[in-house]
Amino acid sequence: MHHGAYGQRLARSFHLDDPPTLLGSTGGGCVLAVTELRLDESGCGMTAPLGSDDAYLVGLQLRRLQRHELWLDGCPVATRPTAEGTSCFYDLQRNPVAWLDEPFHSLQFYMPRAALAEAADEMGQTVSDLICEPGEFVDDAVINGLGQCLLPLMGDRTQGNRLFVDHVLLALRGHLLVTYGGVRCAETIARGGLTPWQQRRATELMREHVVEGIALADVARACRLSSSAFVRAFKKSMGVPPHQWLLMRRIDRAIDLMRDRSVQLADVALSAGFADQSHFTRIFARKMGVSPGVWRNTCCE
Fold this sequence. Notes:
- By secondary structure, the chain is α+β, with helices and mostly antiparallel strands.
- Helix content is about 40%, strand content about 15%.
- It has eleven helices and nine strands.
- A five-stranded antiparallel beta sheet has the order 1-2-9-4-7, with helices on both faces. The protein has a four-stranded antiparallel beta sheet with strand order 3-8-5-6, with no helix packed on it.
- Helix 6 packs across helix 7 (about 225-240), helix 8 packs across helix 9 (about 265-270) and helix 9 (about 265-270) crosses helix 10 (about 275-290).
- The radius of gyration is 27 Å and the shape is elongated.
């Protein structure tokens, strides 16, 4: 399987050279891209096969097309004239090949399935395919608007505005998921609480730093929330504030350590993340109803 139907590889399919291309990426490291394809004269003819790729191309037409043909998996697909500003989805797993015999101008957005799955997973959902009729062009104002935002940057070979490009391509990903992928907006998930990906990310970070602790602001930032919003959402989802949840994980760790009677309680306290034995004893007794020593004598005989 080939990867990366953008830039030079995509241009070779259309018998073009050195097309303007902007690159972005997701938090999980998936490459997103947009390539400008333009030919101001007739004669492109049949495009060269791109090879199978687990991704979509979302083509935004910047110039109307009267005559064109499309094949998927070697079979012809019905087509009709397309208007400027409309978009078509090409599943690269189906080996699309086109025939063009007039000038054309388009932006081709490269969107890997892994990038779509990554975003859906962050919202606690799944996505398989984008729902789109093969060969059908849709009049989608959002895709058109995002493409127009990027068009002035297409000649910038320095990639100097990478942050802006990332945001636009990620916005496109979100739009495709909700509009064509069947993914629900985050607002429909647990009003006031953490989304599944936020809950998972927060608890993972806090477990990783259970001994030395982690700044509340760092966990909130990882969940893309302000500190105050994070605390409210965490308590709504978990039933306790973040600090209390962390203390209980430290107690869990202390209980595991206390099962070994050779480990002194002072060492248990430090190894579990408490300031000292006195602090450990106070918190343990408050949460468990007995002191660490009584618990050890009762439960570790």
